Each structure stands twice: as structure tokens, then as C-alpha cells.
Request: fold
Amino acid sequence: MEIRNFELKDINKVIEILKLNDQYLPLLEGPEAMKRVSECEAAVYLVAEEDCEVVGVIKGIYDGSRTLIHQISVHPKYQKHGVGSALVQEIARRFKEMGAPSVAVTASTKSKGFFEKSGFRELTHAVFMVADSVDEVVEKGKHYSKNSQLYASLFSFSMF
Ligand SMILES: CC(C)(COP(=O)(O)OP(=O)(O)OC[C@H]1O[C@@H](n2cnc3c(N)ncnc32)[C@H](O)[C@@H]1OP(=O)(O)O)[C@@H](O)C(=O)NCCC(=O)NCCS
Reply:
């Protein structure tokens, strides 16, 4: 098995694997997004090859402080053959090379046992939350930013 950086020629195979594992979200994981991730310096995006065929994928980021594995997917035909462990081991090695002190993952309930075997432990107070659209969060933030402008002007008023 070879673990190497994701390349654009892998797009169709990666989509196939994600679809087979019910992990393909076209808006988040489509070809354009894959291209952007492969060009992102903070991201590590790897594939596993068996006999020159892509059989697994992993991606994560290191932002200079924390790391997070966002996605791992192994072709169902190749699961339980060590592909997932090899991908996790290699991404951790890359993060270490970049200077990361630790590594975290957003794990599904089904994959929890796999990550435990790979050296992760559960943080019971961690809850994975998502907003359906980034606009929703920007809109909610309006109220706060209006207030903070008000506080900023009150603050500068009291200074002079
Ligand atoms: C979870 C996944 C990445 C594991 O990859 P894999 O190649 O099958 O894992 P490995 O063969 O390297 O397994 C390593 C060890 O974990 C165990 N393991 C694998 N999947 C497991 C699971 N779902 N639950 C518990 N243990 C698991 C293996 O039995 C093996 O144990 P061993 O060392 O005692 O033999 C793969 O099953 C997958 O792609 N699943 C679908 C997508 C998914 O759930 N992704 C994670 C979302 S966060």
C-alpha cells in the first residue's frame, strides 16, 4: 500500500468511495472543493493506493495551533485491511512534521471504535455542531456587531 498526496486525477475515485460510504456532500466535497483543499497550505489531503488504485482518502488541517481530521473514507471492499490505520498514521506523521502537538477528529458513532484503536480518546463534553449555511451565522452576528460598535463609540467618548 502507498500513501501519497491527493492529486486532481483522484477526484472521480474519491467521489466513488465517498458515495459508497454515504459521505458525499456535493456542495462541501465536490470537485472544486477538492481542488481548493489540495491547494490549501494548512490542509493535509492524502489517498491510499493498493495496486495503483485509490482505495481510501483522509483530510485534515493544522492551523498552527490545533489539528482536526475532517474526513476519512475507505472503499468498503478494502475496509478492515489496515488502510484506515495507515491513513491516520501518515496524517499524524505529517501533522507532527508541521509542528502540531496533538491531533483531533470529528468521529461518527460508528467509527468511534476505530479511532480508539488508533490512539484517540473520547472527550465526553465535545458536541459537533454545524450551521446549514454560513449566511445564517453572519446574520445572527449582526446584532452583536451593532452593539459592539455602540460600545466602541461609548468607550472612545469616555476616553476623551
Ligand atoms: C472507519 C474506517 C475509516 C476504518 O478504516 P479501515 O481500513 O476499515 O480500518 P483498519 O482496517 O485500519 O482497522 C484498524 C483497527 O480498527 C478496527 N476497526 C475498523 N473499523 C472499526 C469500527 N467501525 N469500529 C470498531 N473497530 C473498527 C479494526 O478491526 C482494526 O482492529 P485490529 O487492529 O484489532 O485488527 C472505514 O471503516 C470507513 O471508511 N468507514 C466508512 C466511513 C466512516 O465511517 N468514516 C469515518 C467518519 S468520521
User: Anything to note?
Assistant: Residues 2-126 form a domain with the Aminopeptidase fold (CATH 3.40.630.30). The mean pLDDT is 89.
